[in-house]
Design brief:
This protein has a single domain, classed as Vanadium-containing Chloroperoxidase, domain 1 (Up-down Bundle). Helix 5 runs antiparallel to helix 8 and helix 8 packs antiparallel against helix 9. It contains nine helices and two strands; from the N terminus they run αααααααααββ. A two-stranded antiparallel sheet has the order 1-2.
Length: about 300
């Protein structure tokens, strides 16, 4: 081997040795972080089977709980009243109006992107779903440590809300088959029910927006203080707008995804509130042949 080749190889060997030392130092921290993430992610599924709220005290109880909630969510349109259909019509018209302006709005967003918006959007794209999973695990762990049934119940509702909302969204994605903005095929290019779908497809609705609002709507409904609501919905809005900034979705995609997530979350919360006894209610009375009414108060 020539002297010149030997000299050229020395730095590579040193660099390789340095990388090996660095990787040995990083490896323990990496695996510790992975263990923490896995524990917080799967903790709700593993321990909610013995949770106290709603009688979920066994695996059978957990399965029944999920079954009843899933049935309630998917059958909820059968119980809609006039106001619900008016709300649905209003949201549908709004989504279509946004869709008409999607291309112009998308062009404007892409022209006004900044380094700050790109940095925030990259972070939310990469970590938003992990933050949701970790938060669900943290909610349940906090309820376990503090012996707070409401925290544990909120974790369960968040887990169900995200799972059900994402299932609905994934189904809609394949049924609609809308092209993504980066596919450059326009806002009204649809390729439904194709398996496997094209790489530029599955834009409508946004899965990230769905998950973020499914989680945030439950937390905001369970804890109604304005700081909790502000933080929860700020997180969801940031995640949603980041997808538009990254040219992964049109604005109507994230709008409809947020509607799906919020609808599922609020539906579950209202369902479990209806399971609880009212604080007060009126009862008919009959005393010595005299018919009247009495008020019964439930103290918790």
């Amino acid at each position: 081997m020539s002297r010149q080749n030997l000299i050229a190889r020395v730095p590579k060997e040193k660099k390789s040795s340095r990388d090996s030392i660095l990787s040995r130092r990083i490896a323990p921290a990496f695996w510790i972080a992975m263990i923490v993430v896995m524990v917080c992610t799967f903790l709700p599924v593993a321990v909610l089977a013995v949770a106290e709220p709603d009688g979920v005290r066994s695996v059978d109880g957990l399965v029944k709980h999920f079954y009843e909630d899933t049935k309630h969510v998917f059958s909820s349109p059968l119980r809609w009243g006039q106001s619900d259909f008016v709300r649905l019509t209003t949201l549908s018209v709004s989504a279509f109006a946004i869709m008409l302006a999607d291309e112009d709005l998308q062009d404007r967003v892409q022209r006004e992107r900044t380094q700050t918006s790109d940095r925030i959007s990259r972070w939310t794209d990469r970590y938003s779903k992990r933050v949701i999973n970790l938060s669900i695990g943290a909610l349940y762990l906090s309820g376990l440590v503090c012996d707070d049934p409401k925290l544990k119940h909120t974790a369960l509702l968040c887990l169900e809300s995200v799972a059900l909302a994402e299932g609905i969204t994934k189904g809609l994605k394949h049924v609609v088959g809308r092209s993504r903005p980066y596919g450059e095929k326009g806002a009204f290019n649809f390729d439904p029910m194709r398996f496997p779908p094209p790489p530029y497809s599955l834009s409508f609705p946004s899965g990230h927006a769905t998950s973020a609002f499914a989680f945030s709507s439950v937390v905001a409904a369970q804890y109604r203080s304005w700081p909790v609501r502000l933080i929860s919905y700020s997180f969801a809005v940031t995640v949603s707008l980041a997808r538009v900034n990254n040219n992964a979705h049109f604005l109507s995609d994230v709008f409809f995804g947020s509607v799906v997530g919020m609808a599922v979350g609020r539906c579950l919360v209202q369902f479990h509130r209806s399971d609880q006894r009212d604080d007060w209610y009126v009862l008919p009375t009959n005393h010595a042949g005299r018919i009247g009414a009495g008020i019964s108060v439930w103290l918790r």
